[in-house]
């Protein structure tokens, strides 16, 4: 293979967004070493600029005619572009909310942002990885960075405990996932590319082998840990409660999006012969997640733990789109994760602001907040109501699209359970809103009575204000002006080569096999 041909096959231009993030990371680390503590004035804004530049680079790669790169190890199709954009955007918003929080905790901001950018790189590569070694390295880059961020406030014993629990359970899940992947490697005769694995297993007529089923279960267990689906959710409440709040915000959106991107690619590329089996396993996970997440959230007294169980329930809702296995199902997943980004990060921005001003995250302490901080009350109310699925907010349209896709695919029981658990979730979201808004002045909590004067001109508070307003506007408008996001989600699925058989069967029904074979002949 000559050099020109090798360069052509590597097609390194597809990872330009990741290259921008990596360059930004190096600038931050080296700049911090040279300049010292005073670098914290410009480092967060450099990181946000780099992430926004990466999002622009992703936009320019939209509908790339040659998405395969690095000899088949990475796929920069439209599906991966959307998920990489969600992860990069979630990191940018998280950095806005972390500046004041990290500085007030007395730890180094540059190192924190450096670790977060490393996690972002891992998540972005994971979203497009189409080869086993690339998947594993990307997954570990994301996971190890997450462990480090969880224990970042070293002086806080809760943060140390959360990091240790996360590390131990995460290491176990990685071992389980790796064992499943190694079985897949062995059964396919030594193939590492996902498409080649599926072909080799089909050629060897191993679709009914016990080894393949065990591999599937182990791989799903690894993915379920990443998306915090019950019963692989044990780490979530403790890690959410003990970690620095900006870390929790990133884990609840960026890490979850990367996990769902991996699930879509792995299930459709490596296990197309076991569709009924993996849909059954994910159905069980979705039922457990929706019921456990939403019911246990009712009993929580801590805002962070309530949002932790809420995120488990939300993962159950998103899995309905995955189980549907249709074009509308996958598009509804993409749409919901896009709007979930803003409403969940908005809720965490409010949580951080309240904690910075009062030093507590107990739900009872929010009582009467409207009297002292109307902006914070409005933003938190909008984000919580959107998470609950109240019209006309973004979360309502996201849930409607997921339930409609599930109903079309015949998942009637799952959709009905989703509707019931949504009603349950509305109760505990509205409980917080009622506490903030309806309470009389004499019923104010002690924390609100001693609430400090709102001062946005303090160091690090302006970025928090920008994050607050940005998430409030996006959550409000994403529901009313949801059509562009619907189009984006649908287009990203329709143009993804890996999902072409699903797209064709969704459009043409019974004529799908003939159309599919014609498409494969053209390719």
TrEMBL record:
Pfam families: Ndh2_N, Proton_antipo_M. Its EC number is 7.1.1.-. Residues 12-99 form the NAD(P)H-quinone oxidoreductase subunit 2 N-terminal domain. Signal peptide: none annotated. One of its GO terms (biological process) is ATP synthesis coupled electron transport. It is a multi-pass membrane protein. Keywords: Membrane, NAD, NADP, Plastoquinone, Quinone, Thylakoid, Translocase, Transmembrane, Transmembrane helix, Transport. Residues 129-424 form the NADH:quinone oxidoreductase/Mrp antiporter transmembrane domain. InterPro entries: NADH-Q_OxRdtase_suN/2, ND/Mrp_TM, Ndh2_N. GO terms for cellular component: endomembrane system; plasma membrane-derived thylakoid membrane. It is found in: Cellular thylakoid membrane; Endomembrane system; Membrane. It is an enzyme of class 7 (translocase). The chain crosses the membrane at residues 15-35, 42-61, 81-102, 109-126, 164-186, 206-225, 278-299, 306-324, 330-354, 375-397, 409-430, 466-486. NDH-1 shuttles electrons from NAD(P)H, via FMN and iron-sulfur (Fe-S) centers, to quinones in the respiratory chain. The immediate electron acceptor for the enzyme in this species is believed to be plastoquinone. Couples the redox reaction to proton translocation (for every two electrons transferred, four hydrogen ions are translocated across the cytoplasmic membrane), and thus conserves the redox energy in a proton gradient. Belongs to the complex I subunit 2 family. NDH-1 can be composed of about 15 different subunits; different subcomplexes with different compositions have been identified which probably have different functions. This is NAD(P)H-quinone oxidoreductase subunit 2. The gene is ndhB.
